[in-house]
Write a structure and sequence with these properties.
The protein is of the alpha/beta class. The protein folds into 2 domains: 212 residues, Vaccinia Virus protein VP39 (Rossmann fold, 3-Layer(aba) Sandwich); 46 residues, no CATH class. Strand 1, helix 3 and strand 2 form a beta-alpha-beta unit. Helix 2 packs parallel to helix 3. The longest helix is centred in the C-terminal third of the chain and has 13 residues. The structure holds S-adenosylmethionine (SAM).
Length: 291
Amino acid sequence: MTMDIGELERQLNNHQFYHIIDLPGGLKTPGRPHFKYMWDLVIESLDTIDFKGKRVLDIGCRDGLFSFYAEEKGAAEIIGIDNLISTGAVELIIPARQSKVQMVEMNVNDLRQETFGTFDVIIFAGVLYHLRYPFWVIKKLQECLKPGGVMVIESGILTSMNQYPMMFCPAGEVKGPYDPTSCTFFNVTGMKCTLQSMGFIDVKLDSMIRHAGDGHERLKTDNASLDASFERKIGRAVFSATKASSAVNEQWVDDYWDGVQNPEVLKERARAGKVKAHHGKEAIVKDLTKD
Ligand SMILES: C[S@@+](CC[C@H](N)C(=O)[O-])C[C@H]1O[C@@H](n2cnc3c(N)ncnc32)[C@H](O)[C@@H]1O
C-alpha cells in the first residue's frame, strides 16, 4: 500500500531521526547532516561487497541507513538490531519504502548465534566504542558470521601509538573525548590483532579520519603513516575482515579465547604444536590462514 506523500511529510514531524534516508516523493528524513562524513566512510567499504542474495545483520541500526543500502544492493534478508528501536523507522520509513528490513529491539550483548542464525555480512557501525565488553561482543558476532562472511566495523579509534596493540578505555577521572558512554577506543593495531585472534583473515583498515579543529582530516591507512606518538588522538576508522573458513581455525579461536588459562588445555595445545614456550609463558604460533 503506497502512502500519501502529503501525509508522509506531515508524519515526518512526529519522529526524531538520526540518519538521512530517501523516501518516496523526493522526501528525506531530516537526520543529522554533521554525521554524514562517518556514514560516507562506511558506505565506501560497503560498496566493495556483493550483497546479492545475502543475509545481512546491522548492529545498532538506528534508522536503518545501512540496512536500506544493503536492501537496495540486492540483499535477500536484512535484520537490524538496536537497544533503542527507531519508532520513525518502524512506523514510517519501512512502510513508506515498502521495505522488507526487519528491526528488532535488542542489546548486542544478548545476541547469540541461535537468535537469528548466521549471516553473510555483518555491519557493525558506531557501536563498538560504547561497549564495556568489546571482546565478548566481537566474539559473539564472529560466531554469527558464516565462514567466508564479511564484517565491516566502524568505530571511534585511538589514532596514535600504533606500534602496540592497545585500547584507550577512559572512565572515572580520565575523561574520554565524547560522552561517558564512549569507553572503548582500540588503536588500529589493537583492532587488527583482536580481529585476527578471533579467526578473521584479510583484516583491513579501509579508511580513517582524525577530528581536526572543526573539520576532519583524512589519514592514510598504510603502516608508515600510522602515528607513533604518545599524544592521545581520537578519530573514526572503518575496518573490514573476513571470517576464516576452516574448522581448524574455529577450534583454534575457541581454544585461544576460552581455554588459554587452563593448564590442561595449554599442555594439550603444546603437544599438538599449536603453541610454543616463550619466557615461561605460551605464545601462539598457529597460522590462522592454514589448516
Ligand atoms: C552512534 S549510533 C550509530 C548508528 C548507525 N549504526 C551508524 O553508524 O550510523 C549508535 C546506535 O547503536 C545503538 N546501540 C548502542 N549500544 C548498543 C547495544 N549495546 N546494543 C544494541 N544497540 C546499541 C544506539 O541505540 C544507537 O542507535
